[in-house]
Amino acid sequence: DWNMPDYITEAIDKIREQVGSDEVILGLSGGVDSSVAAALIHRAIGNQLTCVFVDHGLLRLDEGKMVMDMFAKNLGVKVIRVDAEAQFLGHLAGVSDPEAKRKIIGREFVEVFQVEADKLPNARWLAQGTIYPDVIESAGKGKKGQTIKSHHNVGGLPETLNLKLLEPLRELFKDEVRKLGVALGLPHDMVYRHPFPGPGLGVRILGEVKKDFADLLRRADAIFIEELRNTVFEAAPIEGIDSGEPPRNWYEATSQAFAVFLPVKSVGVMGDGRTYEYVVALRAVQTLDFMTAQWAHLPHALLGKVSNRIINEVRGINRVVYDISGKPPATIEWE
Ligand code: XMP
């Protein structure tokens, strides 16, 4: 049986033993994993930790403000915010292959870190919120021997980055990471936030990433999440889905929910006019371990409301579809 206070004590001892008096930098994405890693490492070594929050222009709506409020203001963690939107979008221009996009985003992250690390001459460690499923999936091979999906935060660092890797969540599953976060005093809503991939909207805009697409997607996604949170959840929860309290709404009753931008135009009507605009797909899944997942049976009325709001409020989108694919054979993300 897993004893949380003992686990935290052990994890803290291990971190202190590993890093000694060195300084550590951590890439804070706003996702659950890096946030819990930051809280754990901050608990262990306090001001020896500096977090780097990279705004790559592929974040959710208001993500930057939320992260800065949570960590810098409330927890007193040292956080450097880097505005790197132009840098990331510049390098992504003209690139449509999913793995190529991940590689670029991963590479730019390393570069941004290197620049920040150079400003911290005592930094010897790069901390990451890598969790156990990331480790397995990156090691997994597809039928033709290719990596199923490369996770930019797994796989070691290039020689040029003179930092050792600190990955205190490497042995944990998602539910354990969440319990750890709560035990470390992070707010429930932050810890039970859906996970967000490191490459962010970069893998939720199919094909080439453009700023206009990201802006549309951010707004559509925020509407979807807001409506999920505004529901009252009445159906019985899936056995074992959340180890804590029963879900209060459809946001809490799903493991991950988001909008995907499809760079495909379809015909619609608005008033007397014909429209020819882009499509947004909604994805909502329930899963225990993110290795397999089922699509969430969201109420039709909820889906209808989200669809109406997105089409009415986000000019440039005239069609919304709902993804009813399980994992496997589909993955949770579309890229
Ligand atoms: P898939 O799409 O493989 O997603 O079913 C499983 C979980 O992993 C997340 N994911 C990523 N996380 N970098 C990350 O940090 C990535 O490149 C990446 N790709 C997928 C995904 O959001 C889901 O929670």
From TrEMBL:
<feature type="binding site">
    <location>
        <begin position="29"/>
        <end position="35"/>
    </location>
    <ligand>
        <name>ATP</name>
    </ligand>
</feature>
<feature type="domain" description="GMPS ATP-PPase">
    <location>
        <begin position="2"/>
        <end position="193"/>
    </location>
</feature>
<keyword id="KW-0658">Purine biosynthesis</keyword>
<dbReference type="GO" id="GO:0005829">
    <property type="term" value="C:cytosol"/>
</dbReference>
<keyword id="KW-0436">Ligase</keyword>
<comment type="function">
    <text>Catalyzes the synthesis of GMP from XMP.</text>
</comment>
<comment type="subunit">
    <text>Homodimer.</text>
</comment>
<keyword id="KW-0315">Glutamine amidotransferase</keyword>
<comment type="pathway">
    <text>Purine metabolism; GMP biosynthesis; GMP from XMP (L-Gln route): step 1/1.</text>
</comment>
<dbReference type="GO" id="GO:0005524">
    <property type="term" value="F:ATP binding"/>
</dbReference>
<keyword id="KW-0332">GMP biosynthesis</keyword>
<keyword id="KW-0067">ATP-binding</keyword>
<keyword id="KW-0547">Nucleotide-binding</keyword>
<dbReference type="GO" id="GO:0003921">
    <property type="term" value="F:GMP synthase activity"/>
</dbReference>
<protein>
    <recommendedName>
        <fullName>GMP synthase [glutamine-hydrolyzing]</fullName>
        <ecNumber>6.3.5.2</ecNumber>
    </recommendedName>
</protein>
